[in-house]
Write a structure and sequence with these properties.
Blueprint: H1 4-24, H2 26-64, H3 66-75, H4 77-92, E1 102-104, H5 110-123, E2 130-134, E3 139-145, E4 153-160, H6 161-166, H7 169-181, H8 185-209, H9 214-233, H10 235-252, H11 255-282, H12 294-304, H13 309-321, H14 333-340, H15 354-359, H16 363-400, H17 409-422, H18 429-438, H19 443-455, H20 461-471, H21 476-489, H22 493-516, H23 532-543, E5 549-556, E6 567-574, H24 580-590, E7 596-601, H25 607-616, E8 618-619
Helix pairs in contact: 1-2, 1-9, 2-3, 2-4, 2-9, 4-9, 5-7, 7-10, 7-11, 8-9, 8-10, 10-11, 11-13, 11-14, 12-16, 16-17, 17-18, 18-19, 19-20, 19-21, 20-21, 21-22
Length: 621
């Protein structure tokens, strides 16, 4: 099996090859992408045709021979083939959840449909069947196939209310034109088809992962190879499609409109989150109920907002420093603006938004809908946050009343942790450093100090993070994330690449550790539990009085990864009239030990494992 790094490198190599092909020989690239796209359909329908052909051939042969009919019924071959056809069709019939949101109807909101109809006519784009609003700062067209892999798409335009509230009609018009441009028959019929195929295979793979039958297992093996291969090779076309969609939007509106919309998406979205949503949510720390209506207040906030040009320019500079990579088909802002031949101009406050222009007097009703939806989804969490903060602050106050000089190490650790979370204006770094002087070998102290320093872009944090990773293996993945964050802020691509590879290696180790703890197989090695006296006594006390259990043994499954996290096998012999399933459930419920424990019964469903555990383990009673 390939490692995560190998899969990523293969993905990047395929993309690089595709980009060379599309640049030097576009026609050959187009043919290869088309053939690769058709391969998926060929495999699916090929399997169906072969099975149907076999059934038809066997049926014809049966009509010619009575003996053959008896053979088919005796061997049940015909039934097996029919079942295979059924499960394969069932695997293909992947249900796609339609997008949900506030339904915008043409009779109620004619202005937005006038815009949509005009753009669709100019682009010769497929019909948009419905328009819905969602809370996010986003816009997209989602194609939901009514017949699964067989297509018959329902097109839904999704518009985020935050985007509509913060951008002008011209800017949102350019955003919609961009989304329609992906599906435009006039500008890129082939690209639009590949765009839909990419989405379809991705959804089919997700759908197959949620099913478990013979047909899906056959398809899953193929699609685990095919889907990432097709996604990688068609990546270059998908990225080119983004540039084409920008060009379409520029032609139908103007380059400046689409450029301003792009800048707003990269900059204003974060600004609104920082200056409105974060302060609003922080009120849960001190107020038991949400104050007012968040979306109605957001509308007022945006109308009165004044932009800090220096802060916005800083955000633009940061967005412009991001390079186009292989993890998103959308090119970086710098490259998209360069293609449009537009500068990265700081955004200005929109005095008359698209939401005001297209929804007019009905806008308060829409805001009231999202206010109600927000309250339904968040009021209970708001109350939980409030009570959590009050309890945390009370614990912190009690610890702060204790003199530092006489504080035990664990109390000092709790003080540092609680100070960081519940009193962010106070210096928690000094407390973590004080704890480290008392417990120098504790990896959690090194890690806490390291991440606090790296968050301030202090290079001294690097050594602390690395020390923590060396001391405690389960901190390595998180440590890699912090090192990647630090070096990415410095634009040190070589260091980012190195620590990304280390993170992928650790991820593979974690996945392998999870896999070897997922079950106990008949061929697994079992041994007598190390330091067994304590764990055996602990388990004996918990289960020896359980009715139905006659004898019990304990063995250990040695772990290749994270061996300190023990995994045990508890085998038992039941009394005459006891139920295996009921006893297994009761034993699992009764066990409270540090580590993982599988429960099996002598002579039961896992009798081979139980026999091995009895042979190699320790008898409890």
């Amino acid at each position: 099996m390939q490692s995560t790094t190998q899969r990523r490198e293969r993905f990047e190599q395929l993309i690089a090859a595709a980009e060379r092909d599309i640049q030097h020989n576009p026609r050959r690239y187009t043919i290869k992408v088309a053939l690769l796209a058709l391969l998926g359909y060929a495999v699916i329908f090929g399997m169906l045709l072969v099975l149907i052909g076999l059934v038809g051939g066997l049926g014809w042969a049966a009509l010619a021979s009575t003996a053959f009919i008896l053979f088919l019924f005796k061997t049940k071959l015909i039934f097996a083939l029919l079942i295979m056809i059924y499960v394969l069709l069932r695997a293909l019939w992947v249900r796609f959840q339609a997008p949900v949101g506030y339904r915008v109807k043409a009779k109620q909101y004619p202005a937005i449909f006038t815009e949509l109809k005009s753009l669709s006519r100019k682009l010769k784009a497929p019909k948009v069947h419905q328009v819905i609003l969602t809370p996010e700062y986003n816009a997209a067209i989602v194609q939901t196939p009514r017949l699964g892999v067989f297509g018959w798409y329902k097109n839904t335009l999704i518009l985020g209310v935050e985007l509509l509230l913060s951008q002008s009609p011209a800017q949102v018009r350019s955003v919609i034109a961009h989304e329609l441009g992906h599906l435009s028959g006039k500008h890129s019929r082939f690209s639009g088809w590949i765009y839909r195929v990419r989405l379809s295979w991705d959804r089919i793979v997700n759908g197959l992962s949620q099913q478990n039958n013979f047909g899906t297992n056959l398809l899953r093996r193929f699609f685990n190879w095919y889907a990432p291969t097709f996604a990688a090779y068609s990546f270059a076309l998908a990225r080119a499609n983004e540039y084409n969609a920008d060009a379409v939007a520029a032609q139908l509106t103007s380059p400046e409109d689409i450029a301003h919309a792009l800048i707003n998406t990269h900059v204003v979205q974060g600004w609104v989150n920082e200056h409105y949503w974060q302060p609003f949510i922080r009120q849960a720390d001190s107020i038991p109920q949400p104050p007012g209506s968040p979306y109605s207040q957001l509308l007022d906030f945006l109308q009165a907002a004044t932009f800090d040009s220096h802060a916005l320019q800083s955000k633009i500079d940061k967005a412009m420093a991001v390079k186009t990579g292989y993890y998103d088909t959308h090119p970086a802002l710098k490259d998209r603006l360069a293609a449009l031949k537009c500068p990265a101009s700081p955004p200005e406050r929109v005095s008359y938004s698209a939401a005001q222009a297209w929804f007019a007097g009905q806008l308060p009703d829409i805001m009231a809908h999202f206010d109600q939806q927000w309250r339904q989804q968040n009021e209970s969490r708001w109350e939980e946050r409030y009570h959590y903060m009050q309890e945390g602050r009370a614990k912190l106050a009690a610890l702060q009343a204790t003199p530092l000089a006489g504080m035990a190490s664990e109390q000092l650790w709790q003080l540092a942790v609680l100070t960081e979370e519940f009193a962010p204006d106070q210096d928690c770094l000094a407390l973590f450093e004080r704890y480290k002087t008392q417990e120098p070998e504790q990896a959690k102290a090194d890690f806490a100090i390291g991440r606090l320093l790296l968050a301030k872009q202090d290079a001294a944090g690097l050594d602390f993070i690395k020390q923590a990773m060396d001391k405690q293996e389960d901190l390595r993945l998180n440590g890699c994330d912090w090192l990647i964050y630090y070096y990415r802020e410095l634009n040190d691509t070589a260091a980012v690449a190195y620590w990304q590879e280390q993170a992928e290696r650790q991820y593979d180790i974690n996945q392998a550790a999870q896999q070897e703890r997922a079950f106990v197989a008949n061929t697994d090695l079992l041994v007598s539990p190390g330091n067994h006296a304590e764990i055996c006594q602990q388990i004996r006390e918990q289960i020896h009085t359980l009715p139905g259990v006659k004898h019990a043994w304990l063995a250990e499954k040695p772990m290749r990864h994270y061996p300190e996290a023990k995994t045990y096998v508890l085998a038992f012999e039941k009394t005459l009239y006891s139920s295996e399933d009921a006893l297994v459930k009761r034993l699992v419920a009764e066990l409270e030990i540090e580590g993982l424990c599988f429960v099996v019964m002598k002579g039961g469903k896992s009798k081979v494992v139980a026999k091995q555990a009895i042979k190699e383990g320790v008898q409890l009673f």
